[in-house]
Amino acid sequence: MAEVTPDLRNEFIACIPSMRAFASSLTGAGDRADDLVQEALMKAWANLHSFTAGTNMRAWLFTILRNTFYSNCRKLKREVQDTDGTYAANLAEHPQQHGHLDFADFRIALDKLPHDQREALILIGASGFSYEEASEICGCAIGTVKSRVNRARAKLAEMLSVSSADDFGPDGSAQAVLSVTSVPTAKSRAMG
Question: Topology of 6-78 in CATH?
Answer without folding.
Answer: Rna Polymerase Sigma Factor; Chain: A (1.10.1740)
